[in-house]
Amino acid sequence: MTKDEKFVAAWSRTRGMGKWKFCLFVGITWGILVPLGMEASSYFFGSNYVFEGGSFATRILIYIVLGILAFGQIIWWMNEKKYNKLTS
Fold this sequence. Notes:
Distance between the termini: 18 Å
Helix content: over 70%
Largest sheet: none
Shape: elongated
Number of strands: 0
Radius of gyration: 17 Å
Order of helices and strands: HHH
């Protein structure tokens, strides 16, 4: 099975869950992992690291909203475009 065939099979299953479930899953995952990565980067590479729980929680909420409304939509659009190109 080629890489493209694997993509078509995987995306066929994923798109079956629907666009909004996909965007929720991707957006929430992205919205949590990105701020965690940023925090870890500041902790390990920042010179005067101070954890601020309130601003961290705010960042997570902002990134989750952006992840659902923007990042998830863009990933869906890109995968749909690739899927339609490969299956047409």
